[in-house]
Specification:
The chain is built from three helices and ten strands, in the order βββββββαβββαα. By secondary structure, it is an alpha+beta fold. The protein has two domains: 34 residues, no CATH class; 136 residues, Nucleoside Triphosphate Pyrophosphohydrolase, CATH 3.90.79.10. It is globular.
Length: 178
Amino acid sequence: MKRLKQELIFSGRLVRLCLEEWTDGEKTYSREIIYHPGAVAVLPLYGENVVLIKQFRQAVGKYLVEIPAGLIEACELPEETARREVEEETGFVVETLKKLAEFYSSPGMTNETLHLFLAEVKPSSSNNTTLDEDESLEVIIVHLNEFIRLAETGQLKDSKTLMAALIYKCYSVTNEAI
């Protein structure tokens, strides 16, 4: 496949939307592609519990239960973003951090790469969250078994959270990163 043309349609605070023309040598295709700076997602374990957040997601018009996540800022390593996001969104501090996986969130329309980490956390001494102006979060702590059950029964609807549950379930059996 070869890109023939790229037209910038929109450039926003977080993403760029381009209309692109591609060819496979025989046919030509148009695609709308969202270019994204990348993000992290963290499965924070507090003992045998998972620290989750519940937040309203405007794109789907409902509250979702998710693992903490956020955009990688310029000149920031994914590990730094992971530590920052856990503390900002949950009020917990990362003690240990291990990368489990890296994957595309929705490769049919965006280049967004998600870096998934497993973290052992403890409550921050201040236990304060630092949220973006458009965030309103509720911290929820559930046992690991309940977290896996929520994923298996379709109660979790967020893809990065479902991936975390699946990868953790595999990781807990093999003890190897994917």
